[in-house]
C-alpha cells in the first residue's frame, strides 16, 4: 500500500462537506502513481469512484493531463508548417448514432489537412462501437503500427491513429477499473483533451455537459493551449448533429467564441444516421466516398463543411460544404482510403 497515495485518497474521498480538491501537482503525482501501478488496486478503484462523485476541478484535470503528457505516447512533429487537427472523442464508442468522424477524417486528409485520432477497443461501461473496429473493416490495421509508422502515415497520407493498448499501455492498464466501478472515471475527460502530437496543432474535444466544457477550457488555459475547439456532438463526440443545434466553442489565442449551427440552415434535413455494426458503418463510409446519395453522405458533407471551415481553408461554411462535395465527387477521398491501405 502506498501511504503517499492514501493521503490523496483521503483528501478527495472524505465526503461532501470535508473533501478537498487536489492541487495540480498532487493530481499529476496521483495519476502517475495510478498509471505506473504504485497505488494498489483498492486505492485506484476507490480514488476513481471518489473523484467521480466529487467531480474533478480544472486544476486537477490540468495535473492529470500533465501525467498523460509525461507518460503517454508521443507522435513526433511532421515536416510541415500546417497545424495537425487532433480529434478527441470518447473512447467508449457509440451506441445510438452512426460515427461520421472516420469519413470526415478521410476527406480532410484528401484536402491536405493532417488529422490525428486516438482511441482503444470496446471500453466499459458503455461498450459502444469504437473507431478501431470501423478502421479495421475499412482495411486499415492501425493496431499493429509502431509510433514511427503512425508519424509516417500522418506525414505522408495526412492521417494517423494512436491505439491505446499498443501505444500507451500504462493508460490501457487502468481500463478494467471502469467496468469494476461501473462509472466513467475522470480519465474519460482527459481522453477528450489529451494529444499525443508534439508539433503545432488544433485540438477538438467532444463534450456532453457544459461544466465539463468549462473545465476543459480552464485546464487548457493552464497548459497554455490556446488553439482548440469544443463540440457538443453526438454522444460526446465531435460529430455535428443534424437533428438539433450544434453547440461549439472556438478558442483562438485569447479569444473564445460561442457558435451555434443548424444543419437546416445549410440545406440538410434533420435526420441523423442510426448506429449499426462496424461492417455496415464501413460500407456506409465507402458508399459516401463513392458519392452515392444517402443520409450518411449528407452528414459527412455537413461535418466536413464545418471542419474545413474551422481549419480555415475558406471563409464560409457553405463554400466548404461545396469543396467537400468536390473532393468526394473527384474520387480524391476514395483514393485517399486506397493510399492508406497501401
TrEMBL record:
Q: Which GO terms describe its molecular function?
A: glycosyltransferase activity
Annotated signal sequence is none
Q: Which InterPro entries match?
A: Anthranilate_Pribosyl_Tfrase, Glycosyl_Trfase_fam3, Glycosyl_Trfase_fam3_N_dom, Glycosyl_Trfase_fam3_N_dom_sf, Nuc_phospho_transferase
Q: Does this UniProt record's set of keywords contain GTP-binding?
A: no
- Glycosyl transferase family 3 N-terminal domain ranges (all copies): 7-68
Alphabetically list the UniProt keywords: Amino-acid biosynthesis, Aromatic amino acid biosynthesis, Glycosyltransferase, Transferase
What residues does the Glycosyl transferase family domain cover? 96-334
Name the UniProt record assigns to this protein? Anthranilate phosphoribosyltransferase family protein
Instruction: Please name the source species.
Output: Pseudanabaena yagii GIHE-NHR1
Amino acid at each position: 500500500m502506498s501511504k503517499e497515495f492514501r493521503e490523496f485518497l483521503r483528501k478527495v474521498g472524505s465526503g461532501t462537506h470535508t473533501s478537498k480538491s487536489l492541487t495540480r501537482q498532487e493530481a499529476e503525482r496521483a495519476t502517475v502513481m495510478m498509471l505506473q501501478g504504485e497505488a494498489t488496486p483498492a486505492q485506484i478503484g476507490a480514488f476513481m469512484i471518489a473523484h467521480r462523485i466529487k467531480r474533478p476541478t480544472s486544476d486537477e484535470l490540468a495535473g492529470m493531463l500533465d501525467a498523460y503528457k509525461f507518460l503517454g505516447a508521443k507522435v513526433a512533429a511532421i515536416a510541415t508548417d500546417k497545424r495537425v487537427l487532433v480529434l478527441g472523442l470518447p473512447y467508449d464508442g457509440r451506441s445510438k448514432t452512426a460515427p461520421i468522424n472516420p469519413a470526415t477524417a478521410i476527406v480532410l486528409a484528401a484536402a491536405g489537412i493532417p488529422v490525428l485520432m486516438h482511441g482503444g477497443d470496446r471500453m466499459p461501461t458503455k461498450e459502444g462501437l469504437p473507431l478501431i473496429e470501423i478502421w479495421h473493416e475499412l482495411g486499415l490495421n492501425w493496431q499493429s503500427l509502431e509510433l514511427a509508422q503512425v508519424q509516417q502515415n500522418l506525414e505522408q497520407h495526412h492521417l494517423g491513429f494512436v491505439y491505446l493498448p499498443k501505444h500507451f499501455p500504462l493508460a490501457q492498464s487502468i481500463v478494467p477499473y471502469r467496468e469494476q466501478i461501473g462509472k466513467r472515471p475522470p480519465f474519460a475527460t482527459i481522453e477528450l483533451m489529451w494529444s499525443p502530437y508534439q508539433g503545432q496543432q488544433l485540438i477538438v474535444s467532444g463534450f456532453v455537459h457544459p461544466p465539463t466544457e468549462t473545465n476543459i477550457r480552464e485546464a487548457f488555459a493552464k497548459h497554455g493551449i490556446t488553439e482548440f475547439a469544443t463540440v457538443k456532438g453526438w454522444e460526446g463526440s465531435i460529430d455535428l448533429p443534424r437533428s438539433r443545434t450544434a453547440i461549439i466553442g472556438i478558442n483562438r489565442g485569447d479569444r473564445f467564441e460561442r457558435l451555434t449551427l443548424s444543419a437546416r440552415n445549410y440545406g440538410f434535413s434533420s435526420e441523423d444516421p442510426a448506429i449499426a455494426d462496424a461492417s455496415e458503418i464501413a460500407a456506409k463510409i465507402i458508399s459516401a466516398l463513392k458519392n452515392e446519395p444517402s443520409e450518411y453522405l449528407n452528414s459527412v458533407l455537413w461535418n466536413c463543411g464545418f471542419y474545413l471551415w474551422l481549419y480555415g481553408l475558406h471563409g464560409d461554411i457553405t463554400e466548404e460544404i461545396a469543396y467537400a462535395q468536390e473532393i468526394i465527387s473527384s474520387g480524391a477521398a476514395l483514393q485517399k482510403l486506397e493510399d492508406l491501405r497501401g
